[in-house]
């Protein structure tokens, strides 16, 4: 019954293009329209609406030779607009100063999948974008050859022009553009891709961001910056408890404020909430300040609903009880854990707690919607423009074709902006104002109080060590509410894609392994947060290995490498992980040699093994996620219970490097976000209400808590640009917190089993 | 009625007297370069210069600005060539870029005022400004670069 409901949701999700292929793969079903006996699809082929490499979709060249490349993935700081342009421009033979970037609206039938999540923009689109550039180059060459009446083999494109060397003639791209774009797109198998040794942009570190000038002069447009003629401004008072509703409200004081135009009730939300607005009372005014002032003047009586009692301290005990009980669903079973433990020389146990987190992108959710002649147009900072379009159309009662979703720049995303609830709110309010454009802004309090929170979890680890201190039996129980709870009525089990984030696919060389997933109910909206379930799994596993190393009186790094074992390729399916980030398990087998290698690199970078002064220590952690390998070595100093992290070395192997500078910046950012998770960041609940409000209480690192030195090591693996690419945006994060807490142990002898450290070390 | 100068242009404000400068700039003047991040002086996204000093526009009522000169990111320089802006581009500081107007305004005040800055100066001044993407290491480097460029 339960799985059936998930399947239904999966199907609906897939048909709706919401990126839920995840769920379908997870429950082992073929996608709709594919017969049972057909080959399963992976990677970009398996994504809703797939991909295209049609140059006419992505490339336009005007008569002045300006090349406009359309980015169909959302820019939220990972640099994708620049990276996609680098790939296309390089294959096209375009000069960088003549390249511009346009942003595609949500239209997957045209552009292919646009869900910018899962660290897969380049993993999925590197090759299609190369081919698009190469095809356009071929078309320009053909147009030139026709113009000159010579054979196409005699001409070649380079430096924004096609040349005929024999006659020393040359035509600029601008002169050829119109004729070239009239030609048919050459067949995929006829294309010649550039030899990587001739790349001018791909793999180069000196490419400036395409939005650099606009960002540094304040002329970019994020969702919150969109302006339309006659636009009104709105904020919403939402039920403070998930699933609550306004029983009654008095808006007379609000409406008495000059500039407050209207107060609109938004319907309460039903479970499962998916991406629907939470309901509440909206205030629409002539500017944002007046809307906020009007909201402050509302008197609302809330009915809190079924989650009124949610208290994170009490709930931690609930999770702990579940994680300490047998009988949870066995999700991985290899060898015989019980027998292995019975034969072990000693048993070590530890329990870890990882709190709720809010993505808190620096730009809070914000969107504008206007409706004219039965057609809605939206502008928003959305990671998933297609699902935004579909849900907005449904909510407004319009056909999909009558809804346009324009994607602005995103002031950070981290998973929050994959959920378009805020765009739907703007749509509802525009509709209530007869189509007048309405900008809906979330204040920071709204964002912290009503996030799609990172789950909360208790991870219980048990290991049996043999005489030599090596683990011979390993049990990992994970108790955490599932993201599935926003898609299906009250599921209590983690979905396979969550379990596949570091739990099932843990590639350690241990004979007897069992993983269990006891039930846990959700009491808040749970959603993706950068690197998702890898956060708790990596924290528990990498902390626990360090604890075992200590029990075995071994060097942490040496012991970690020993437990990873010899270099080998592990098929994740053999570990019970049928998901593998949606990728083909043979092409993307887990390579323990690459994992060991990044650990060595990170260790070398921090000068592992050096003598540390009193109160200082080194720690290390390595983790495989998003089909990339990352290790972090951290140096900490603990004075009067205050932890500082002066230096971090992070190494990533993500296959070939498309935009090395942005790989580095993602690693730097991941380190700082991870410092926050280790030291200070958490959301707690009492009486169903988030206890943090804004950046004064929801703490993220400021510059004075950021490491003075972060060394990023990009590891090159074999295979050059032919090898499959790994993810970059997310995999940096999971190993950061355990590396820091392992270093705290080295510095103080105190083991941190609960994040964040906060004042645990203060006496 | 309040008279002030924003990026060299005289402005007259007669709205709700509690209106913070931030929303006046963004919603009334249409100058959206100055960002909203918290509204409570906790993030620095709204940093502007008021009579040359870096200030949080989100907690500064326009009604207190009679005769003041306000400079926003849009007015920091002609053509984006303040040393801080140039250094920001050279080092590809930005990730999402959302906090960077505030960071640049904060850093510009620092760089304009001092000919040398220490790591401690940078950390203590710039800790007023949050960056969720984690661009701090590059901000530090870019400020040093801008100081160099200035001299
Ligand atoms: S918006 Fe003003 S300090 Fe955050
Ligand atoms: S660059 Fe994204 S918040 Fe600073």
Summarize the structure.
Chain A is of the alpha+beta class and 763 residues long.
- What's the CATH H-level superfamily name of the largest domain in chain B? Beta-grasp domain
From the N-terminal CA to the C-terminal CA of chain A, the straight-line distance is 51 Å
Class by alpha and beta content of chain B:
alpha+beta
State the fourth-level CATH superfamily of the largest domain in chain A.
Aldehyde oxidase/xanthine dehydrogenase, molybdopterin binding domain
Order of strands across the widest beta sheet of chain A? 9-10-7-17-14-15-16
- What is the arithmetic mean of pLDDT of chain A? 94
Terminal-residue CA separation of chain B = 42 Å
Please identify, by name, the CATH architecture of the largest domain in chain A: 2-Layer Sandwich
CATH third-level topology of the largest domain in chain A: Aldehyde Oxidoreductase, domain 4
Number of strands of chain A: 28
CATH topology of the largest domain in chain B: Ubiquitin-like (UB roll)
Number of strands of chain B: 5
The small-molecule ligands in this entry are: FE2/S2 (inorganic) cluster
Largest interface in this structure: A-B, 66 and 60 residues
- Mean pLDDT over all positions of chain B: 97
Shape type of chain B: globular
Helix-residue proportion of chain A: 25-40%
Key features of this structure:
heterodimer, A: 763 residues, alpha+beta, Aldehyde Oxidoreductase, domain 4, 3 domains, 7-stranded mixed beta sheet, 5-stranded mixed beta sheet, 22 helices, disordered N terminus, B: 151 residues, Ubiquitin-like (UB roll), DNA polymerase, domain 1, 2 domains, 5 helices, binds FE2/S2 (inorganic) cluster
Word description of this protein:
The complex is a heterodimer of chains A (763) and B (151). Chain A is of the alpha+beta class and 763 residues long. Chain A has three domains: 55-217, Aldehyde oxidase/xanthine dehydrogenase, molybdopterin binding domain (Aldehyde Oxidoreductase, domain 4); 227-306 and 365-441, Aldehyde oxidase/xanthine dehydrogenase, molybdopterin binding domain (Aldehyde Oxidoreductase, domain 4); 312-358 and 452-748, Aldehyde oxidase/xanthine dehydrogenase, molybdopterin binding domain (Aldehyde Oxidoreductase, domain 4), CATH 3.30.365.10. Chain A has 22 helices and 28 strands. In chain A, the strands form eight sheets. In chain A, strands 9-10-7-17-14-15-16 form a seven-stranded mixed β-sheet. In chain A, strands 12-20-19-18-13 form a five-stranded mixed β-sheet, with helices on both faces. In chain A, β2, α5 (80-92) and β3 (99-103) form a beta-alpha-beta unit. The longest helix of chain A has 28 residues, at 121-148. Residues 1-35 of chain A have low confidence and may be disordered. Chain B has 151 residues and is α+β, with helices and mostly antiparallel strands. Chain B folds into two domains: 2-75, Roll (Ubiquitin-like (UB roll)), CATH 3.10.20.30; 78-150, DNA polymerase, domain 1, CATH 1.10.150.120. Chain B is 35% helix and 14% strand. Chain B has helices at 21-28, 83-90, 100-113, 119-126, 136-150; strands at residues 2-6, 9-13, 47-50, 53-56, 69-71. In chain B, strands 2-1-5-3-4 form a five-stranded mixed β-sheet, with helices on one face. Chain B is globular, with a radius of gyration of 15 Å. The N and C termini of chain B lie far apart (42 Å). Classes of the chains: A alpha+beta (763), B alpha+beta (151). Bound molecules: FE2/S2 (inorganic) cluster (2 copies).
